Every structure is written in C-alpha cells, then in structure tokens.
Amino acid sequence: MSRIRSAVTAVDRRSFLAATGVVGVSAGIGLALGPGGGSGTAAAAPEAATTGAPTPRTPAVAYPTPTRTAPARTTLESVAAPRDTAAAFRRLDDGPGWRRVVREQLATPRTGRAGRRTVLSSFVQLTDLHLVDVQHPVRTEYLRSQQVSGWRPQEALTVPGAVSLIEQINALRDGPATGTPLSFAVTTGDNTDNNSRAELDWFLTVMSGGRVTPNTGDGRRYEGVQNSATRLFWHPEDELRDTDKRLGFPRIDGFLAAAIRSVDSPGLRIPWYSTVGNHDGLASGAMADRTGFLADFAVGSKKLYGIPDADAKEMLKLLSKGGDPSGAKLIELLRRSKRLMRSITPDPRRAPFTPHDYLAAHLDPAYTGAGPAGHGYTKAHLGSDTLYYTFPMGENITGISLDTTDRGGHYTGSLGTTQLNWLKRTLKEHRDGYVVVFSHHNSWTMTNTHPDPAHPGEARHNGGEVVDLLQCSPQVLAWVNGHSHRNSVLPHGGFWEISTASHIDFPQLARVIEIADNKDGTLSLFTTLIESAAPHRTDFRDLSQTGLAGLYRELSHNAPGSTTAPAGKPVDRNTELLVSR
Q: Rounded to an integer, what distance in angstroms lies between the CA atom of residue 573 and that of residue 581?
C-alpha cells in the first residue's frame, strides 16, 4: 500500500493544480438555480431575483447543433491517438483500441464461464467532470506562471464535452462484455469545479436533460483569461505570441463566442446517482471559506489575472500541500493584489453552494430526468446535511455511496467516525448479498485526518482503515472511485479498487462496469473504458456543439504538461477482474 501511495503522490499533487488549478467557493449563500443559472429548468430562488444583476444571454451565432446519432463506440474498438507524434500541435485521429486483460490475482478463471454466467449489474461510472465556469473570479489561473499545467486550454469546453459523453452513453445502451442493458450511471464526484451555483445547475441539467448556457457575467461577451492580453494563456482569437501558441496552438476565430453559446443535452436515458467530491464543496477543492470573503469575492466585480512570480511561487507551494485549509493565505493574497485586478461583470450565480444546497438541488423535480428523484439523496438527508446513502444495483447487490470530502479543508479525503460507523452497520445489514462501494477519493488519497470544524470532537479515518474494513467484509466486490485523474485497478485481498481517469484531462474517459456470477464459485467484473461521442478527427472551422466536443479532447491532449500517464497500464483499462465467492 505504501509503495502504491508514494508512486501516485506526485501525480495527485500535480493534478491538484491541473485538475484543481482553479478556485471555487464553499461558504453558505442560498442556492439560486434555474432561469438565471443557464438551463431554464428550475425556478430561481428569491435571493437571485433581488440582486439586480443582468441575466446572461449568449449571442446567437451561425453554428447550428447537428442532428446525428452517436456511434456505440468503446475503447475496445478505437481510442483517439495523434496522427503525427512529432508535430508541435498533435492532431488526433482514430487509433487502435485497448484489449481486454484478464486479471487473476483474486481468483482463477475457469473454462466455460462465459456460457454459465448470469449478469448481476451493468452500469457506467462518470467521474471528475469538473464543469467549469472559466470566468469565475476566485480561480487561481495566475499560478500557471510557476506550473504550466495550472491552467488548461480546454477548460472553456467542459459543458459540450460532458454532453458528448452523455450522448455516447445513450448510444451504447448495452454493456460491451455481456450485452446486458446498462441499468444506471454513477458520478463519483468533482461534478463541478468552483463550487458555484451556476456550475451545479449546468451539471444537473447536462445529466438530466435541457439547455445549458455555460456563461456567467456579461451575457454578450467572454470575460476570462483568454482575451486578457496576458501571455500566460492561450488567446485563440488574436496574434498574441502567448505560452500556448509558442507550442503550436492554433488561432481559431469565433472560439470564445462559441464556448459560451447554449448547449443542448439529451440527458441520460438511464437513472443516475450522484456522489460528492472535494471540488463540489471546497474552494479550490481544498479550502473552507470560514470568513465569507471568498463567497463575496466570487459574486463581485473584480478578477485577478496575474501576480508577481514570487507570490505565485509561494501560493503554489502552499496549495499543492493543502496548506491553506481555511483559505486565509489566498484571502491575504487577494486583499493585497487589489491594484492588479480588472473589472468584470458581477453575477450572483457564482455564489457557492452548501451541502444543504447541493442536496436541495438534487431533489428539485426540475432535475429528475430519468430518475430516481434525488439521484440517491432523499428529504431525510436535508435534516442532517449528510451526503452518503445506499441504492439498489440489481438483484441481491447494493451500492454504497460515501462522502469522503473533509469539510474542514484539504484536497485529500477521509471519513468521520459517524460515517464510518454507518458504513460498518450498512455492511452488516447487507452481509447476505453483494456490495459495491462508491466514493470520490481513492484509498491512497484518503490521508487527511484533520477534524471537521462542525464536529471538532469527531475523529477522521483514512483510506487504510476503510480498506481494512472492506477486506473484512466478504460481500464487498469493489470500491469504485476517481479523484486522481488516472486509471488504476488494484486488488485488495477480497475486493478490487477501481479508480477511473477524469473527463476533463486527456484521454477523457468514463467506465462501464458489468458484474456477472460465473456459477463456478467466481464472479467477473468487466471494466470497459469509453470516450465521448465526438469524432476523433477535428476541424478548426467546426464550432458546432459536436465540433467543440471534439476540440475539447484535442486541446486536452496538447495541454502543456499533459501526459499519457492518466490512461494507466493495460491492466488498469479494459479488464475482466475475477473474484472468488
């Protein structure tokens, strides 16, 4: 376990500012989703109606959403790959698929099992969508001066990229290993990026269906870093010799108008369940805004685009270690950098949401989609603001969704004693069936044991303790999670830990999981990775919804600091995982 943890620590810390190189807010301002939030599917809360802020309206542009049927494609058939690996900017095309690997660490495969097996559950995992409001004032893009991966050129296209993933899941319909229809989906956290009400609306609308306008502030124009004349960032619509153009990034006229244009999501055609991540509740996925300063700054009229290198170096070092759990150092930086800030259009939809707001939004009938109502959460959760629950996955198999976020502040996770005891009781209640556990953090990133300010006397428990508990529970088949933005499949005595790469960083994946009883004392867990429905080959002139989704993938492949490491090894991708029962 320690060797695994040390091997991935560098990646996790690097991805904190690549996957978390943005800052959100988490203090409690009432949730205000709906017409002002971009989807037009829910009623606006009274607070938003009294702010007087303009309702963003994206200008009409001449790029219609194409009418098409997404291919039922998985990475078994083809994976996006560069046409020319020597090119400065690598264009993508269809590459060879990834074969399925049989893993025997926990059980020996027996001949004839394919003809005997019955399928217990067939579902899809989405993780780390990071739907980003790229104009949010509390983001820390300026840290890119010290770490180039701290801001990513593809970030403005997270919404069309996520919609394209929904299209692919809808087209797939059946599990590729068993042919059994997919019965549900689970998100394993970091559904939003800056913990803003607008992003929460976008996420729920993308998943449940409707129109999303991924724009805040001025409804007529983009106000983020990509037209700021700051050389740190890719400026797609001018000739500025910025960091990314020096690396071969193209000029794409009309990119910014297209990026904030409305997007239509069909919504998932299957029921879906939601698991919370650290970016869904903490500023930068790591800081608890206890003073309310960041909440006020988020909805305000100023944004910081650049800071002195010395300040950036100090802040990067601090945040990469999770060393500012209260956000005090970031607040101090913002206070002393007022003269460097630029004016932007204020917007109340950028306000943070609390755990209670998160629950209420999921329970809003406007976001029910294919169901179930609440997507795992019920009205009973509102009374205690608890974000963990169980749900049915099939005959005699139960899903357990955990909340591993440390509300006291840190990008790593843990469980409080109350939740750990609940998990113990729940495992006992389901000892006669099978169990799959879902969480955002994985075992090696559950290392923060600082107390929750709301429960100062309660101990926190790390990933090792959770592994020990699950190993002592023979009904547990798997622990499915995300957070690290990389594929990893680990055996733990009697169960498999399945961690899936994000959908914001290349290769932008989700994972289908099919669980089958082989009727010979073993079970098989088939894992198959999928990409979005967007074509691998792009056209810089195609700024349609589908074209933007394809460009989202290609930009992520070329993002400075990006590597192929998140894809993992063949044993972490498309697999058959044997387990003895």
A: 24
